[in-house]
Design a protein that fits this description.
The complex is a heterodimer of chains A (471) and B (1199).
Chain A lengths: L32 H13 L4 H27 L14 H12 L1 H12 L6 H24 L26 H34 L3 H10 L7 H34 L11 H27 L8 H32 L2 H12 L3 H13 L7 H4 L2 H28 L14 H24 L5 H19 L1
Helix pairs in contact in A: 1-16, 2-15, 3-5, 3-9, 3-14, 4-5, 4-8, 4-9, 5-6, 5-15, 6-7, 6-8, 8-9, 9-10, 9-14, 10-11, 11-12, 12-14
Chain B lengths: L20 H9 L6 E2 L2 H5 L2 H10 L2 H21 L2 H7 L25 E9 L2 E10 L2 E7 L12 H10 L9 E2 L2 E2 L2 H25 L20 H12 L22 H5 L4 E5 L5 H13 L4 E4 L8 H7 L6 E4 L6 E5 L10 H13 L4 H4 L3 H13 L32 H13 L7 E6 L4 H4 L3 E4 L2 H15 L13 H16 L4 E5 L5 H13 L7 E4 L9 H13 L5 E5 L3 H4 L6 H5 L5 E5 L11 E4 L8 E4 L5 E4 L13 H8 L7 H9 L8 H11 L4 H6 L20 H7 L19 H23 L4 E8 L12 H5 L7 E2 L4 E3 L1 H7 L5 E7 L2 E9 L7 E6 L28 E13 L3 E2 L14 E3 H6 L28 E6 L8 H9 L7 H5 L8 E7 L6 E7 L8 H5 L5 E3 L5 E3 L9 H4 L7 E2 L10 H4 L14 E2 L5 H13 L12 H5 L5 E5 L6 H6 L4 E2 L11 E4 L1 E3 L15
Parallel strand pairs in B: 7-8, 7-15, 10-11, 10-13, 11-12, 15-16, 16-17, 20-25, 22-24, 28-39, 29-38
Antiparallel strand pairs in B: 1-30, 2-3, 3-4, 5-6, 5-17, 9-14, 18-19, 20-26, 21-27, 22-25, 23-24, 23-26, 29-36, 30-31, 32-33, 34-35, 37-38
Helix pairs in contact in B: 6-32, 7-8, 10-23, 10-27, 11-19, 12-15, 17-18, 17-19
The chains are: A mainly alpha (471), B alpha/beta (1199).
Chain lengths: 471, 1199
C-alpha cells in the first residue's frame, strides 16, 4: 500500500490571489504542511475525547427522544401538535424552512466562494458542507412528518402508477419536492467529491481494518495521480457551478410555498430574495455557532482563525441588512397597498397576541447583529458566537411569525384562532437539533472536518502571504 | 393606516383585570363606518385578552398529562365504552341472513334509501318528521312537509335524535335493583302489587282510617304478613261483581284480560304516575284508564322546560284553558315579550317559515332587478306606509318542490307551500307590500331577538312593567298607561311600538315568551284582543298537552305524598325528574320513601339511581305511538327499526302492564286507540294513509298548515276541562275551535296587578336582604339549554358539540351577563363566580354577552349531570340546583360572589374581532329602495377574466347556492343536519378548545353597534365552492379539484394531509382530521352513518361538498328517466333542515331556477369576492325594517 502525500504534486490550478495584508492569516503563522496534516488528522486518528462522548451521548439521547416523538406522531396523527384550523401549519413548516435556511451556508461557502476564489473558505467549507447536508436531512424530515398521512408521502413524487395520476404541478409543494431533493443530492455529491482525497488519506493512514476498508471503498481508488487531480478539479468546479444556482433556487422555491398563496403575510413578491438572504444569514450563523466551540475543543484555532470569523461576520452583517430591508419593505407595501387585510396583518404583528415574538424577531435579527459593524467585535469568538445564537433564534422566529401570525388571523374574523406549540412540537423540534448534533459529532470524529489537502495547499500560500507581509 | 378607521390600539395598561367599558364605549362612539366586533376583549385588545387566550389554551402546561386525558376523554366520547359492548354481547343477537332475499321485501332496492313518516316529540309536542332508512337502518331525520309544525323543516333536536337510537350507553335490559331481569318478572311484580296493596288498603279500611290521609296510622308495610296473597286471592272472586268497566276504556279495545275482581284489588293501590308533558292520545287514553282502574292513583306531570305560565296566562285573560297559536302570515307588526318563538317552542319551525314569508312580502324577484325608477316608487310607498304597492309576488314559484331523494316513502312535495299560503293570506289584510316588522323585548338575547328590527333588553322584572305600560298605551285590560315604573327610554319604546301596533290593528301581534310569567301572558293576550288580533294573528286551541295545569304544585303534592309514605308505587315515565325537579322539593330524598319505584328510561341517569325497576325506554324510531302538534294536529309515531334491545318498552306498553295487558304491544295499543276514531268505516285505509302522510287528515293540514285538521268522524268535546281525568276526556279532539274574540282579555282583574306589585315587593325585600350581606345581586333567568335542552341530551355528542346560538359555546353552560353587569361584578369571561340563593350555592363561569339586559344573568339548565353517559360527564354546571319552585324561570336577587379562578370554556367563534370588513352586508328596506345597488358598492369584485388560467365553460349543470341573511335566525338546524348527513365526527371539548371542531357548516355571529345593545348578525358559512378556488392550486396531489359542474370536490382517498388547502382558504371552511376522530370500533355507531358519504379517517382534509351524494342521486335518477334534473330536486341537508328557508341550492346555468333568481337580485353578493375567488355560494344582504319613529342607530348607517 502506497502512502500518499500530495505536497509536491501538481497543485490545483494556481489561482492568482490578491494579497490582503490587513487580514489576519487564513492559517496561523508557523504551520507547515506536516503540522496542518497532523492538526487535521489528529481529530480522526486521535484518542476519543471524553467531552466528545458526553456530547454525543446527550445528542444521541435527544435523538432517541426524537424517534419516540416521531413514533408517537405516526401512531396518533399530527393532532398531537398545536396546529388547528386556521393555523394548519406550525412548527413542522417553521422548522423545515429554518433547517433548509441553515443548509444554505455550506453550499454557498463551498460553491459560490470557490467560484469567487475566497481562499478563506477552505478551512470551513468541508464542515459547512457537512452541516448543510445534515441540516437538509433534518429539513427533509419535516415535509414527511407534517403530512396527515405520512405513509403516502411518495404520492408527491412523479412516478408512473396504476392510478394514472401525476402530482399537481401547479402546487408549490411539488416544486419544493424537486428543489429540496435536488439540493440535497447535489450537496451530498459536492461534499462527497470534496471528501475523496481526504478519504484516501485516511485509508492510507488508518490502522484499524474496518476504517481502512470503509475508507478504501469510499475513496474510490484514489491514488492521487495527476489525472485524478485533474478530473477531481473539473468535477468539483462543475459541481460548484451546478450548486451555485441551487443556493438561490432552493429557498426561492421554499418561499413560493408562501408567496403563491393568497394569505396576507404570505402573498408577497419580495419573498424569494428575502428568503435567500435570510437563509444565508442563518446558515452562516449556524456555522459560527458550531465552529467556534469546535475549534476551541479540537484546538483548531490555527486553522480557523479570526480571519474566518471576521469574514463570516461580515457576510452575516450584509445578509442581515438585506433581511432588514425585507422587513421594512413588507411594512411599506402593507401600508402602500391600501389593502385592509394586509394592513391589518401589519398591525396585528405589532400589537396582536404574537407581538412579543415579532419584537424578538427584530431584536434578534436586526438589532443585535449591528454590533458586527465594529471590527473588534467581529474577531471576538465569544461575541460572534453570541450574535450567531441570536440570529439562530431570530431566524426561527421569523419563520414562526410568517407561518403562524399570518395564518392565525386572516380574512374572516369568525375563524381566527391561536396557535401554541405543544410538548410534541418542541420535542420534535429539539429532537431534530439532537439528530443534527449527533450527525455533526459523528462527522467531526470520523471524517476530516477540515479539508486536509486544500489546507496543505493553503499553507504554501500562507507562507507567501506572511512573507509578503514581512517584505 | 387603516383607511378611515382608527386602530384599536390601546396603550396597554399595566395589569387591569377587567375590561374598561367606558373606553370601549368611547371608542365605539367614535366610529363612523360599520364596525363589527366579535367579543369585548377583542374590541378592547386588552392584555388580559391575550392572557386569557394563554390561559384558555394551556396546552403547553398540560400536554403530558393532557394528552392522556384527552385520549381517554376521546375514547369516552367516541366509543362510549367497550364494556357496554360486552354487555351487548349478552343479549341475543339477531339472526343473520347470509343469503339474499328470496322474497324481496316490498319496496327495498339495496343501496337506495326508503323514507318513512313519523313524529319526533319534544316537551310533549309532536313534530312530523320523515326519516331516511338505509336497509332498515334509520340514519337521517328530515321534516315532514305535510306536518304543520314542521313544514319540511326540523330543529337540532330532531336532527340529532338518531344518535340517541344508537347510543351505546342506552339501557339495554330490564333490571331490578341492578340485576338484569325480565318483563315477565316486572309484570308479576305489578300483579303482586295490586294484590298486596289491595289487601293493605282493606286493612287500612278495617282500621278505620281514611285512605291516603291517615297514613301514619297504617301499620308499616312490613307488618303485613305473608298471607296477603291468599287474602287477595280470596277477595278476587268476591270483588268480581263489583267490577265496573273503566270509563277510559274504549269499546273498540278488547275487553281487559283482568281476572275477576281485579278492580277491587286495585282500588286501594296508591299508585303515583309521574310523566313529562303528554300529548299522545293513546297514552292519555291509557292514563285515563289507569286512573279509573286505580281510584287511589294520581297522575303527576313535571316538564322542566314547559311553558309553565302560558295556560295560566290565557286563563287570567279570560280565555279558559287554551293555548295560543299564532299566525304570522297575517301579521304586519309583531312584538315579543321575552320570547324566542322563532327558534324554541312547539311551533317554532312554522313561525320561522311564516316570519320569512312576512319579511319577503316586499321583495319579489322581479322587483329586485327593477330599474331605479320603480324602486324609487317603492321607497315612496314605504315611506308613506301605504298599500300602494302592486300585489306582491312571492319569489318562489308555486309549489317549488323540495322533493328529497324519496324512493318509496311519502312523496315530499310542496315543502315551501307555507310561503305561498302566507302570501295569499296577506293580500286579504290590506297592509300590502310592507315587510313584517319585529320588536323584541327580552332579557337574555335570543335568536328571535337577533331578527328584530328593534330590540329592547330588559330584566324580567321590568318586562312585566313594560308589558303593563304597553297594554296601557294600547288600552288593553290590565294595562297601566302611567304606571308600571319604567324609565323614559322604555316608555318611549313602548309608545312607539304601541303606535305602530295600533296602526296595524288586525295585523298586529304580541307574543309572550314561553317562560314569561302568567301575568305577561295575560297582558299580551289582552293586548292582542285590543289589537283585534284574536282570530286573525292569534287563535286559541284546546291544550295540546294534558295533566295538571300547575306542574310544580302537582310535583309538590307527589313529594308530600312520598314523604308521608302515602305512596305504594311510583311509576316514572321518562324525564329524569330527580335531576330536573325544583331544588326545594328534594325529590331525591323523597324518592327514597317510595316502596316501589319503576322507571322507564333510556339511560342510567340520576333518577335511575333511585328506582328499583328500570325499564329501557324504546326510542321513538323503534316504537309506535302518536302525538299532537302545537296546533292540535295529530300524527302517528311509527318505528323505522325493530327495537335494538329486546326489553325496550314504550310508555304505553308500561302503562298497559298496569291495566292487565302486559303483552300488548305499542302497535296494538295505538291501533286499538284509533280504531273507530279514524277513517269512518275504512279504518285500514285511513290508518295507512295517516302513516304514509305522517299526519292524520293530512290534506287539510297541508292546505292550511296552521289550521287544525278537521276529522269529520270525531266528536268535538265541549271545551277543555280542568283536572286529570276530565282532561283526558277532551283529548280526542282532532278539531279545536278558536275562542270567541270577546272571551279573551276581559278577565284581567285588579288582583293580578296587586299580585304583581306584591311580587315586586318580595323581590325588593329579597334584594334588600341580600344587600345586607354586602354582595352584589342580580336577577337570575333560567332557560333550557339551546342544544341539550333540559339535560336529556347531555349524552348526545352531536348536540353537545353544536355551538350554542349567539354565545357559540359548546360543551358547557355559563352565566351570561351583560358587559355592564360584568363590570359591576368585577368579573370577565371565564371567571368563576359563586351564586347564592336561599342557602343554595352554585359556582359557574361567567360569559360576557353583549345585548343581555343589565342587572340580570342567564343560566341555562340541563348541564351538570351527575349520572350520565360518558359524553355528558363533567360538562357544565347544574343550574337546577338553584331553581326552586317559586322561581322556575326568574330568581330575584341572587347574590354573586367572585369565586376566584377561571374555567376553560370551549367557544368556537368568540375569540376574535372583525373590523371594517363587509362580510355581513346589511341595510334597511328603505335604503335599499332608495339605493338598490348599495350592497355592491361595499366591495370591489374583480373582472371575470382576471386569472392566469383560462376560464371554463359549464355546459351542463353548474351548481350554486344562495343564503338569505335576512332569513337566517342562527338556529343551528342546518349545522346539525350537516353533521348527520355527512358523518361528521364529534371531537370533544378539548379539541374544540384547540380549534379543531369538524363542522362543515358554521354560523358566524357578528355584533355591531353599541356594546350594551348591539345588532346581531348570523352568517352561515360553508364551502363557497369558488370558481377560482385557492385550495385547488396548492394541493400537491390533486386531492381537491373542480368538477365539470362547478363544485369544488374533495377526494379523500387521495389526500395526504398537507393542509395547505386549508391555509389558503380565505373562508377557513376546510376541516382536518388531526387525529382519528371517527370511532371505527363501536359497532353500534357504525349504524348511524350515512352510507352514501365516505367516513374519513385521520390525516384527511374534508369540507362541505354541497351534499354531492344528493346531487349524484338526483343526477342518476334524472338520467334514468331521460330528463334533466329539475329545479328543487336536489335539496342539500342544510337547506332541507332550514326552518326559515334561508338556503337555496340549484343550477345556476338555468336562469329560471330558484337559486338563479336569488342570485340575480341586487342584494346578492359574494363573501370576500374581492379576492377573485368567485364563490359559487353567495349571500343576500340583510335588510331590516326599522320604525322611523324610533331613533335610528347612528352606527347602522355609514358605508
Amino acid at each position: 500500500m502506497t502512502t500518499f502525500d500530495p505536497p509536491a504534486q501538481p497543485a490545483p490550478p494556481a489561482l492568482p490571489r490578491l494579497p490582503k495584508p490587513y487580514e489576519p492569516a487564513v492559517v496561523a503563522p508557523g504551520h507547515t504542511q506536516a503540522t496542518v496534516t497532523d492538526q487535521v488528522n489528529k481529530v480522526v486518528f486521535g484518542k476519543t475525547p471524553l467531552w466528545w462522548l458526553a456530547a454525543l451521548g446527550i445528542s444521541f439521547a435527544i435523538t432517541m427522544g426524537f424517534l419516540f416523538a416521531v413514533i408517537w406522531l405516526f401512531a396518533k396523527g399530527v393532532g398531537i401538535w398545536g396546529i388547528n384550523i386556521p393555523v394548519g401549519w406550525g412548527f413542522a413548516i417553521v422548522n423545515f424552512v429554518w433547517w433548509i435556511g441553515i443548509g444554505h451556508a455550506g453550499t454557498l461557502i463551498s460553491a459560490i466562494l470557490l467560484l469567487f476564489r475566497q481562499e478563506w473558505r477552505t478551512s470551513i467549507n468541508r464542515f459547512a458542507e457537512a452541516m448543510t447536508l445534515f441540516a437538509v436531512a433534518c429539513a427533509g424530515l419535516f415535509p414527511i412528518l407534517h403530512l396527515g398521512r405520512p405513509w403516502l408521502f411518495y404520492w408527491l413524487l412523479p412516478y408512473p402508477n396504476t392510478m394514472s395520476l401525476w402530482p399537481q404541478f401547479r402546487s408549490p409543494l411539488i416544486w419544493d419536492v424537486f428543489a429540496v431533493s435536488t439540493y440535497g443530492t447535489v450537496s451530498l455529491l459536492f461534499w462527497y467529491v470534496g471528501l475523496v482525497p481526504d478519504l484516501a488519506s485516511i485509508r492510507d493512514r488508518a490502522k484499524a481494518t474496518w476504517t481502512r476498508r470503509l475508507a478504501g471503498v469510499f475513496s474510490l481508488g484514489w491514488r492521487g495521480s495527476a489525472k485524478h487531480w485533474h478530473n477531481y478539479e473539473m468535477l468539483y468546479l462543475l459541481l460548484a457551478g451546478l450548486a451555485t444556482p441551487l443556493v438561490l433556487s432552493v429557498h426561492t422555491v421554499v418561499s413560493f410555498d408562501f408567496a403563491i398563496s393568497i394569505i396576507p403575510g404570505w402573498h408577497t413578491t419580495i419573498f424569494p430574495p428575502y428568503f435567500v438572504a435570510g437563509a444565508i444569514y442563518s446558515g452562516f450563523a449556524m456555522v459560527i455557532t458550531l465552529m467556534v466551540p469546535l475549534r476551541w475543543l479540537f484546538g483548531l484555532k490555527d486553522l480557523v482563525t479570526e480571519r474566518h470569523l471576521n469574514a463570516m461576520a461580515k457576510v452575516m452583517l450584509a445578509t442581515g441588512l438585506i433581511v432588514a430591508y425585507g422587513y421594512l419593505i413588507e411594512i411599506f407595501v402593507a401600508w402602500y397597498s391600501g389593502v385592509d387585510f394586509e394592513q391589518f396583518l401589519l398591525v396585528n404583528r405589532f400589537t396582536g397576541p404574537y407581538r412579543f415574538q415579532y419584537a424578538m424577531l427584530w431584536v434578534c435579527n436586526i438589532l443585535v447583529p449591528q454590533v458586527l459593524w465594529i471590527r473588534r467585535f467581529r474577531v471576538q469568538p465569544l461575541l460572534v458566537w453570541l450574535v450567531s445564537m441570536f440570529i439562530n433564534v431570530g431566524m426561527w422566529l421569523e419563520r414562526y411569525v410568517i407561518v403562524v401570525v399570518s395564518l392565525h388571523r386572516d380574512f374572516l374574523p369568525s375563524s381566527w384562532g391561536m396557535f401554541e406549540g405543544t410538548f410534541w412540537d418542541w420535542a420534535i423540534y429539539i429532537g431534530t437539533i439532537g439528530f443534527f448534533l449527533s450527525l455533526i459529532f459523528l462527522f467531526v470524529r470520523f471524517l476530516p472536518m477540515i479539508s486536509g489537502f486544500e489546507m496543505r495547499h493553503l499553507v504554501d500560500h500562507g507562507h507567501h502571504t506572511t512573507e509578503t507581509e514581512k517584505a | 393606516m387603516r383607511g378611515r378607521e382608527s386602530l384599536p390600539v390601546v396603550s396597554a395598561p399595566a395589569a387591569p383585570r377587567r375590561l374598561d367599558l367606558a373606553v370601549l364605549r368611547e371608542r365605539l362612539a367614535g366610529q363612523t363606518g360599520p364596525r363589527f366586533w366579535r367579543s369585548l376583549e377583542e374590541l378592547a385588545e386588552t392584555p388580559e385578552f391575550e392572557e386569557m387566550l394563554h390561559r384558555e389554551f394551556p396546552r403547553q402546561a398540560s400536554v403530558w398529562a393532557g394528552d392522556g386525558v384527552s385520549r381517554r376523554r376521546f375514547l369516552q366520547l367516541m366509543s362510549a365504552s367497550l364494556a357496554l359492548g360486552g354487555l351487548a354481547g349478552c343479549t341475543r343477537q339477531p339472526d343473520e341472513k347470509i343469503v339474499p332475499y328470496v322474497d324481496m321485501p316490498e319496496g327495498i332496492v339495496p343501496g337506495k334509501p326508503l323514507f318513512f313518516a313519523t313524529t319526533h316529540t319534544l316537551n310533549g309536542y309532536g313534530r312530523g318528521v320523515v326519516v331516511e332508512s338505509h336497509m332498515g337502518r334509520p340514519t337521517k331525520v328530515e321534516g315532514n312537509p305535510h306536518h304543520p309544525a314542521s313544514l319540511g323543516a326540523t330543529d337540532v333536536f330532531a336532527q340529532a335524535s338518531v344518535l340517541d337510537l344508537y347510543d351505546p350507553g342506552r339501557l339495554q335490559a330490564i333490571s331490578h335493583r341492578g340485576r338484569t331481569t325480565s318483563w315477565a318478572r316486572l309484570t308479576e311484580e305489578i300483579g303482586r302489587l295490586a294484590e298486596e296493596q289491595g289487601a293493605r288498603a282493606r286493612a287500612r279500611e278495617a282500621l278505620g282510617t281514611a285512605d291516603g290521609q291517615g297514613a301514619a296510622a297504617v301499620p308499616a308495610p312490613a307488618a303485613v304478613p305473608a298471607e296477603t296473597p291468599a287474602a287477595g286471592a280470596g277477595t278476587a272472586g268476591a270483588g268480581a261483581a263489583g267490577a265496573t268497566t273503566p270509563p277510559g276504556e274504549t269499546g273498540a279495545v278488547g275487553a281487559p284480560t283482568a281476572g275477576p275482581g281485579a278492580a277491587e284489588e286495585r282500588r286501594g293501590v296508591r299508585l303515583r304516575v309521574l310523566t313529562g308533558a303528554v300529548s299522545s292520545p293513546t297514552l292519555l287514553g291509557q292514563l285515563d284508564a289507569l286512573l279509573a282502574r286505580y281510584p287511589e292513583a294520581k297522575w303527576h306531570v313535571w316538564e322542566p322546560a314547559a311553558a309553565h305560565g302560558a295556560r295560566a296566562g290565557v286563563r287570567q285573560a279570560g280565555g279558559g284553558d287554551r293555548e295560543p297559536v299564532y299566525d304570522l302570515s297575517q301579521a304586519q307588526v309583531v312584538l315579543t315579550l321575552d320570547s324566542d318563538f322563532l327558534v324554541t317552542g312547539a311551533g317554532a319551525q312554522a313561525y320561522a317559515r311564516q316570519f320569512t314569508a312576512g319579511r319577503r312580502r316586499w321583495h319579489g324577484a322581479e322587483k329586485m332587478r327593477a330599474g331605479p325608477a320603480a324602486l324609487g316608487e317603492m321607497g315612496k310607498a314605504l315611506a308613506a306606509g301605504s298599500g300602494s304597492e302592486p300585489a306582491p309576488t312571492d319569489p318562489e314559484p308555486a309549489g317549488a318542490a323540495t322533493t328529497g331523494p324519496a324512493a318509496a316513502g311519502p312523496s315530499v312535495t310542496d315543502g315551501r307551500a307555507g310561503g305561498e299560503g302566507a302570501e295569499a293570506g296577506h293580500r286579504e289584510t290590506g297592509h300590502a307590500a310592507e315587510p313584517l316588522r319585529l320588536y323584541a323585548v327580552e332579557s337574555t338575547p335570543t335568536p328571535t331577538g337577533s331578527m328584530a328590527d328593534h330590540r329592547l333588553p330588559l330584566p324580567p322584572s321590568q318586562i312585566l312593567a313594560f308589558a303593563r305600560r304597553l297594554a296601557g298605551e294600547l288600552g288593553a285590560a290590565g294595562g297601566a298607561r302611567n304606571g308600571g315604573r319604567v324609565d323614559e327610554r322604555i316608555a318611549a319604546f313602548a309608545r312607539a311600538a304601541a303606535e305602530d301596533l295600533r296602526a296595524h290593528s288586525g295585523a298586529a301581534l304580541v307574543v309572550p315568551g314561553d317562560y314569561a310569567p302568567a301575568e305577561v301572558h295575560a297582558l299580551a293576550h289582552a293586548m292582542n284582543r285590543a289589537l283585534g288580533a284574536v282570530g286573525r294573528t292569534v287563535r286559541f286551541v284546546a291544550p295540546v298537552t294534558h295533566g295538571p295545569a300547575d306542574q310544580a304544585a302537582s310535583l309538590r303534592e307527589l313529594v308530600a305524598d312520598l314523604e308521608a309514605e302515602r305512596v305504594d308505587a311510583l311509576v316514572i315515565l321518562g324525564g329524569n325528574p330527580v335531576f330536573t325537579a325544583p331544588a326545594d322539593f328534594e325529590l331525591a330524598r323523597a324518592m327514597q320513601q317510595a316502596p316501589l319505584a319503576i322507571y322507564l328510561t333510556a339511560e342510567d341517569d340520576e333518577t335511575a339511581a333511585l328506582c328499583h325497576w328500570l325499564v329501557p325506554e324504546a326510542h321513538y324510531l323503534e316504537s309506535w305511538g302518536d302525538a299532537r302538534a302545537f296546533d292540535g294536529t295529530v300524527s302517528l309515531v311509527q318505528p323505522l327499526i325493530a327495537p335494538l334491545y329486546e326489553g325496550s318498552k314504550t310508555a304505553a306498553e308500561l302503562v298497559a302492564a298496569f291495566l292487565d295487558r302486559p303483552d300488548a304491544t305499542a302497535h296494538e295499543l295505538v291501533r286499538e286507540h284509533w280504531q273507530g276514531r279514524l277513517g269512518g268505516g275504512d279504518f285500514e285505509r285511513a290508518w295507512r294513509r295517516a302513516l304514509h302522510d305522517g299526519v292524520i287528515a293530512a290534506p287539510a293540514a297541508a292546505a292550511a298548515p296552521v289550521e287544525p285538521a278537521a276529522g269529520e268522524d270525531v266528536e268535538l268535546p265541549s271545551g277543555a276541562v280542568a283536572g286529570t281525568a276530565g282532561t283526558v276526556a277532551a283529548v280526542e279532539a282532532l278539531r279545536t275551535e278558536a275562542v270567541v274574540d270577546d272571551e279573551v282579555g276581559g278577565g284581567i282583574v285588579e288582583e293580578d296587578i296587586l299580585d304583581e306589585v306584591r311580587r315586586e315587593d318580595r323581590a325588593r325585600e329579597a334584594a334588600a336582604a341580600a344587600e345586607a350581606s354586602g354582595l352584589p345581586t342580580i336577577e337570575l333567568v333560567f332557560r333550557p339549554d339551546p342544544t341539550i335542552w333540559d339535560g336529556r341530551w347531555a349524552n348526545n355528542g352531536w348536540l353537545q358539540e353544536i355551538p350554542k346560538p349567539l354565545t357559540k359555546l359548546a360543551w358547557d353552560n355559563a352565566l351570561l351577563v351583560s358587559p355592564r353587569t360584568a363590570d359591576e361584578l368585577g368579573v370577565t369571561r371565564a371567571d368563576l363566580v359563586t351564586l347564592r340563593r336561599a342557602g343554595r350555592t352554585l359556582t359557574v363561569p361567567v360569559w360576557v354577552m353583549p345585548g343581555h339586559a343589565d342587572g340580570c344573568g342567564t343560566l341555562h339548565f340541563g348541564y351538570g349531570r351527575r349520572r350520565v353517559g360518558p359524553v355528558g360527564r363533567e360538562t357544565g354546571f347544574d343550574a337546577y340546583s338553584l331553581r326552586t319552585s317559586d322561581a322556575l324561570w326568574t330568581a330575584p336577587a341572587v347574590e354573586v360572589e367572585r369565586a376566584g379562578g377561571v374555567y376553560p370554556l370551549a367557544c368556537t367563534q368568540d375569540h376574535f374581532s372583525m373590523e371594517g370588513r363587509h362580510l355581513v352586508r346589511h341595510g334597511t328596506f328603505r335604503e335599499f329602495a332608495e339605493h338598490p345597488t348599495f350592497v355592491h358598492e361595499m366591495g370591489h369584485v374583480p373582472e371575470d377574466d382576471m386569472s392566469m388560467y383560462p376560464g371554463y365553460e359549464y355546459e351542463g349543470y353548474a351548481w350554486g347556492m344562495a343564503v338569505d341573511l335576512n332569513a337566517c335566525t342562527g338556529c343551528n338546524a342546518c349545522v346539525a343536519a350537516c353533521v348527520v348527513e355527512n358523518n361528521s365526527p364529534v371531537v370533544g371539548k378539548e379539541q374544540v378548545i384547540a380549534g379543531r371542531e369538524m363542522h362543515w357548516l358554521r354560523i358566524d355571529r357578528y355584533y355591531e353597534g353599541p356594546l350594551d345593545d348591539p345588532r346581531i348578525h348570523h352568517q352561515p358559512v360553508m364551502c363557497q365552492h369558488c370558481e377560482l378556488a385557492p385550495c385547488e392550486v396548492v394541493c400537491p396531489v390533486a386531492a381537491t379539484v373542480h368538477s365539470d359542474e362547478g363544485t369544488n370536490d374533495m377526494i379523500y382517498n387521495r389526500c395526504v394531509g398537507t393542509r395547505y388547502c386549508s391555509n389558503n382558504c380565505p373562508y377557513k371552511v376546510r376541516r382536518f382530521n388531526f387525529l382519528q376522530y371517527v370511532d371505527t370500533e363501536t359497532e353500534l355507531l357504525k349504524m348511524v352513518r350515512n352510507p352514501d358519504v365516505t367516513v374519513r379517517g385521520r390525516g384527511v382534509m374534508e369540507k362541505c361538498t354541497y351534499c354531492i351524494q344528493r346531487i349524484n342521486a338526483a343526477r342518476i335518477e334524472s338520467k334514468r328517466e331521460g330528463r334533466a334534473v329539475r329545479d328543487g330536486e336536489i335539496v342539500t341537508a342544510c337547506q332541507q333542515a332550514c326552518p326559515s328557508d334561508a338556503i337555496v341550492f340549484g343550477d345556476v346555468n338555468d336562469p329560471g331556477s330558484r337559486v338563479s333568481r336569488w342570485k340575480d337580485q341586487h342584494l346578492d353578493y359574494g363573501l370576500l369576492a374581492e379576492l377573485n375567488t368567485r364563490p359559487r355560494t353567495s349571500y343576500l344582504a340583510k335588510l331590516t325594517h326599522p320604525n322611523p319613529a324610533l331613533a335610528e342607530r347612528t352606527d347602522v348607517e355609514g358605508r
